[in-house]
Amino acid sequence: MQATTSVPEKAPEDWAITVNGYNYFHLLSALQKDIRRGKEEQALYWAAQQELYSWEILWDRLAVIAVEDIGFADPDVLPRLRWLRAQYERALEKGNDSHRLFLGRAIQMLCRSPKSRITLDLAWAIYGEIEIDKTRRPIPPYALDHHTPEGSYKVWEEEGPKLVNESGEPNPYSERSKRYQERHRELPYTRPRRRGGKEPKPTPERQADGQSKMSKWVGSSKGEKTRVSGSVLTQTAIRGTKEWAQKNVNCVTGCSNRCRYCYGVLYAEKYGRGSRETWGEMKVRRHLVEKKYPKYRGRVMFPSTHDIPDNPEVKEACFTVLGKLLRAGNSVLIVSKPDPKVIREIIARFGRYRDQIEFMFTITSVDPVKLAFWEPGAPSASERVRALRFAHRAGWRTSVSAEPFLDYNPVPLVDAVSPYVTGEVWIGPMNHIERMGVSEEEQPMFDEVMRNYTPAHLAELYEALKDREKIRFKDSFLRRMEE
Ligand code: SF4
């Protein structure tokens, strides 16, 4: 294997440097150039170096290469690449070295495929016309058939079915199809609906069975609620953070709160981005800060696998991403174990987007000993409640998550926060910790906290809290109560 490109002595930005000292922009560029030239050894070398920085960026780039440099010269390359990526991810999940084979195969395939830049050039030609020349082409007359509000069948008959580049394959269905089309035309005709003419979707009320002797709405604060009924709880299709938002955005690896139950560590370990030991060191993922963010369908939860602490570098990165999300028109749920200073800054800086933001503050206990053990790096309960009161007084939308609730009796916590909540108070058990492994030191505290989550105790809490207007039970609470 030969590596001919020299490693830059001093890279311009530290964040772009891979563990072996390459700048990842250089790696991606070298990778693409060598794939174009069909140099598979070189290309795999760059890919393997890039993989150490981020395999997701690597595979995203391979997809771009497949479209940009191969395109219709081999249209099957893209689905094959997608399949190889899926196999690669599965191998990674299993901690199995065969992921290297799938990457190697993908690089070989791209290097050995015939090349064409016709798709790239088409995109340049058309987007250039729209964005640079600002042209506006007229709709061609042959498009105005009965599929459009003002069109007609006549146009369809004369112009609609015309195919250029027809395969010439014998078509045994043609006559029968024509007969049915003629008969179809005699049926009453419904014009296509104009914009805004959509029928409303059925409301949850219409979908619910309405038969429950014990019933309560649970589910997202955005109206996607599921009815829990009778002694058997209806299975909620929406789980985890999807109960709160449809999309999660993060821009940092690690979290200085160092919660012992953190599920973010599981993902970090799975994707080779960190471990339980290093989780407290927050590393800004620059490419996620620099990228553009679109308007997503549904609400965005930011962040979900780290917090926004009072750490200048991390805070600035988070504010940059938050600003991009808001400017793109997203509705954002800011989830935090809040530091009052940071919340004040958000309120001062993003006041004009107040209507797009809801705060979800995680407050899991009123007991400082439990908090110091389970969330050693996070702000204290009183700081979090101070942040909540401040945001509430300033007129912002607020919710609280007591997931995982750490006190055997979480009702005093619910009482303490409810007056400052405009939305909901969520309650849920601790999940995942057994999967992460409980150390000897953690065992007594773990045994104590697990008593909170026995089905019988959850059922008692459910009875005690179910009639409170703001209370929402996480799906994991309801499932465990049913066990
Ligand atoms: S605040 Fe959230 S992301 Fe941070 S350590 Fe705790 S559970 Fe993990």
Brief synopsis:
The chain has 483 residues and is of the alpha/beta class. The protein is 42% helix and 9% strand. Iron/sulfur cluster (SF4) binds next to loops.
List keywords for this structure.
single chain; 483 residues; alpha/beta; Zinc Finger, Delta Prime, domain 3; TIM Barrel; 2 domains; 7-stranded parallel β-sheet; 11 strands; 9% strand; globular; disordered N terminus; binds iron/sulfur cluster
Structural features, described:
The structure is a single chain. By secondary structure, the chain is α/β, with parallel strands linked by helices. It has 2 domains: about 15-120, Zinc Finger, Delta Prime, domain 3 (Up-down Bundle); about 215-480, TIM Barrel, CATH 3.20.20. Helices cover about 40% and strands about 10% of the residues. The chain has 20 helices and 11 strands. The protein has helices at about 25-35, 40-50, 55-70, 75-95, 100-110, 120-130, 155-160, 175-185, 205, 265-270, 285-290, 310-325, 340-350, 370-375, 380-395, 410-415, 435, 445-450, 455-465, 475-480; strands at about 215-220, 225-230, 245-250, 250-255, 285, 300, 330-335, 355-360, 395-400, 425, 470-475. The strands form 3 sheets. A 7-stranded parallel sheet has the order 3-6-7-8-9-10-11. Helix 1 packs antiparallel against helix 2, helix 2 crosses helix 5 (about 100-110) and helix 19 (about 455-465) packs across helix 20. The protein is globular. Residues about 1-15 and about 195-235 have low confidence and may be disordered. Bound molecules: iron/sulfur cluster. Iron/sulfur cluster binds near residues 264, 305, 306 and 307.
